[in-house]
Write a structure and sequence with these properties.
By secondary structure, the protein is mainly β. Helices cover 0% and strands 25% of the residues. It is built from no helices and five strands. The strands form two sheets. Strands 3-4-5 form a three-stranded antiparallel sheet, with no helix packed on it. It has a two-stranded antiparallel ribbon with strand order 1-2. β3 and β4 form a beta hairpin.
């Protein structure tokens, strides 16, 4: 809306509606928008919006990976390595950022968290070293 002619809207930012709280719900599991979509309003035509750039933070990440391994010597120059690995070992839900496309308002649209990182993944390996 700023009519500056920049590519990919790198300068355009929305305006902030006065008196509206940014966060009305920070629980991605609730089925409600992660932030208040009414906080933002389109900037006036020919002007740059009044909100700051990059002020918003999404859901946090808490990831714990773990690996256990055991080396066993078979003969002098040969070994067998057993390895067990677990990614996101505590299976903590790690939600991705909410949808930020203003043109996608509605259920599953603007302000909603609709995806998450992978759940717990475990793998084992056996390696023969010679």
């Amino acid at each position: 809306n700023s009519l500056t002619g920049t590519f990919n809207d790198t300068i355009d930012v929305p305006s902030v509606a006065p008196g509206q709280p940014l966060y009305n719900n920070k629980n991605p599991r609730s089925g409600q928008p992660y932030f208040n979509p009414n906080y933002f309003v389109p900037e006036p035509v020919g002007q740059i919006g009044n909100s700051m750039r990059r002020f918003f933070t999404g859901p946090g990440m808490l990831n714990t990976d773990m690996a256990l391994l055991k080396n066993t010597t078979i003969v002098e120059n040969q070994q067998l390595e057993f390895r067990a690995e677990a990614f996101n070992i505590f299976n903590h839900a790690q939600f991705n950022n909410p949808n930020g496309q203003v043109d996608n308002i509605g259920l599953g649209g603007f302000g909603y968290v609709t995806s998450a990182q992978n759940p717990r993944i475990m793998q084992v390996a056996l390696k023969y070293i010679f």
